[in-house]
Amino acid sequence: MKIPQSSRPPGFSGENRYAACKMPVIAVDNGNRYIPAQVTADLAEYIETEALSAREAEVLSIVAAGNSNKHVAKILGISEDTVKVHMRAVLAKLGARDRTHAVAIAFRRGILTSKT
Fold it and tell me: CA 113, 81, 85, 91 torsion: positive or negative?
């Protein structure tokens, strides 16, 4: 079946398609593994980051529910300053700009789930 020109991705041509298909086949044929560049980049993002402690993940899950630092502190029986320390560590470890970004990253990476 021929792919209509209008539905082909940009830069798609017979030569490009052949080259893209050839690399993994040659790698595997030579006894190597082939991992696409995007997968490698995604894995590198996870490897380079330090894991959250259990307490940091707990604080983040309560924050993800929409709670303020003050309310998180009350729930966990810790000071608001301690919550702020945990959140700063979370932001640094995840490379997040703010709380919302940290929550989004944590869901994307599977650190938080809808059941958390």
Answer: positive
